[in-house]
Amino acid sequence: MTSPTASRRGRARAGLAASAAAVLALALAACGSGGSGGSAPDGGTLVIDTTFDLKTADPGREYELTGQLLAHSLYDTLLGFANNDLTKPVGNLASSYELSPDARTLTLPLAPGRVFADGTPVTADDVVFSFNRLSGIKGNPSFLLDGVTVSKKDATTIVLTSAKPNPALPFILPTPALSVLNSKVVTAHGGTADQSDGAEGYLNGASAGSGPYQLKSLDVASQAVLTRNPSYNGPAKPHYGTIVLRNVKAATQSLNVQKGDSQVALDLSGDQASGLDTSKVTVTSGASGYSIYLMLNQSAGVSAATSNPRFVSAVRKAINYADLLSIAGKGAVQPAGVIPSVIGGSLPPDQALKQDLAGAKADLAASGVAGQHITLSYPSDFTLNGLSFQTLAEKLQAQLAAAGITVDLAPAPVATELDNYRNGKEQIGLWYWGPDYPDPSNYLAFAPGGLLGKRANWPVGAAPDIDKAATAAATSADPTQRVTLYQQFQRDLNTGGAFIPLLQPPTNIVTANSVTGVAYNPIWSVDVSAIGAK
Amino acid sequence: MSAPSEPSSAARRAGARPAGARARHPLLGYLLRRLGVSALLVVGVTLVTFILTNLVPGDTVAANLGQRAASDPAIVAAYRAHYGLDRPLPAQYLAYLGNLVHGDLGESQQTHRAVLTDLRAAVPATLELALGAIVLSVLIGVGFGVVAAVRRGYLADSALRVVSLVGISVPTFWLAMVAYYLLSYRLDLAPGSGRLSPATTAPPGVTGLFTVDALLAGQWQTFADAAAHLVLPTLVLTAYTVGLLTRFTRTAVLEVLDQDYVRSARAKGLPGRTVLLRYVLRAALVPILTVVGLAFGTLLSGTVLVEQVFSWPGLGSYAYQASAHLDLPAVMGVGLVVGIIYLVINLVVDLLYGVIDPRVRVS
Question: How much is the pTM?
Fold first, then answer.
């Protein structure tokens, strides 16, 4: 039988042991609060904070900004852009390219000697497999090769044949979704070129590319860890041995980068970026590749007002574009047309729309629909590069009211409002467009009968002059002539279109002062292999 | 051959049972009944979640496919077929139930992974936070509540009531931001984002609780790093539950303090500490336990804001992402897990009632 004294001693010992364990845990915790739990491989570790929209690391299925960033780091494409010059594709896995005069055949000789991370050579068969897989699995980016057939001319030459003239194809090929995968590795892990493909799970845990980095680990909810590809022999010069891409909200990104927990923050708004300690960090602001616009439905069944050209003109003239830029923050610009300033074929800034209140009132009076209440629909839970659509909609409502146009706001969560928008049910919609690839042909979506034109119930034939301008721009293969034709297409849209380009929100990249080489790219955000240290 | 004999009245009084009959403990019977009811409730939860998610006026295809892909009928058809969205709703639900029996919760439209795999990662992350928060909350909140009740009307009572009110009233999101700014950014007392530092590799997964897994693997540095990352979000979550428990404990203890048997115990000359611990606190534990159970359930299912601030890949973040993108399989999975969490907590609390209060056992 245990005596009460012994029992008390036992309890005391247990208490002491528990206390000691707690102290040990706290001490260890304090030791660990410095952050690093292990040593970094050669080159050091670069931590990039961004807000994930990541779903997968499979290049054939990803089509989100984080996925593009990841795929661009892990894989190579046939063509690329040197120094972020989006107007001129250059060789990458292909040494060069040649587009036939009719813009239907693109011939690409492979650069000699390029190898995958496992040391095996990149072959034409790998390219054919990768492109066929992209098309065949019917994923988000499959449309990029619509109407394009891939074949190998010989062991080192690829031929892409388009059903219709496709002068945009050299600008599409640098898109990370068109990465070249190691076909043997992917096939060994269930990869096929049709919907039975089962390689995604493997590609979410390991990469099968020839890019400057390899995937070490991935959790789509929290972080991706990349390590330098020791076999890489491409043109990039990756500095860091390890890249950690973390999912962090914008509000905490600013604290992390100033504290030194991260070296790059990608998603800060103009307001968040403006108050940072510049002795610790550098803020690089500029116009993003997104364009925010108003869509006015051209169906009289949806709205007698928005389908009235004079009413559309009144809205166009009523908007104070410069004032909208002020709420978007430093770096925001007004695109002169639907093509944003960072994409080739954009209009010069002096041709941008301008406010004309008297003209707006005159057009409204002439429209015969003055006094009608119009509904402005938008995703109220959505911010684009820190710019809230709710704030923007309220500003537009006030500006239009000054011209006598009464707008009722109809906010809704993006997940539910998208359905109305895509089904052409909105009277006026406030939305945005991000470039799929940096070619003006991507903006033919705004033409009558185009992807966005259909959402405005604006079919082919509704505006013959704009149809003609769009067709001319789409079929031209001459680079100089293309620019001229796309600019004319935008001028026509600015006077008679169903869309009103409003602004390009800014992009603010914040970097630790120890970091160099961070430059914004509208397709893949940043090229991590170009980031170096002072 | 003789007929089976009746047990004697003496044997019946002694609790003897007929030969061959299985003795069933009352608690076992109670447990079986509760489990049966819980299984039905889980099915009910899946049905309600399924109906509600399908009532949302949005198209999951539009929410999850890009603009170009969503306009391609072939891609849309492939997407619908892949997720079984091309079947009538009743067929979808029955298929879900059929798969559920085999432990298959479907594939997330957001992560392209099995929902069960996602939940296996997200639930332990939140559990690790919630366990720390609830333990701290019970220790602090019950202590504060007892002190406030015993010192009713004195300065300590007033001060603790203010502390409790502040804990309950301050928005968790704001508190998380302030804690992040002050304790992590300004004072560098604890790390801010994530479950581990960037250079630290996650320990081999056993429980999914990084601190426990690191200990099991003998990775002391990883344990320290994981524990350090727990500090701030745990403290923020604790603030609210401490406030809640302080108020409830104070009220519960005050009610018991006025009981006759407490006065009798004191009149008998029992030491104040004995009266407090054996008479007062034990009797007050039943309502406190109820609140602890509810608070734990809330911590497990409602940490979304704290998880967002601290970049914590837990159940709250997963639920938020799933809802924002109409990721139906994930929403169903989260609904199921949250339902099970509450059912289990309620069951455990009910069983603990019996342990604490003999009257409950008898009834």
Answer: 0.86
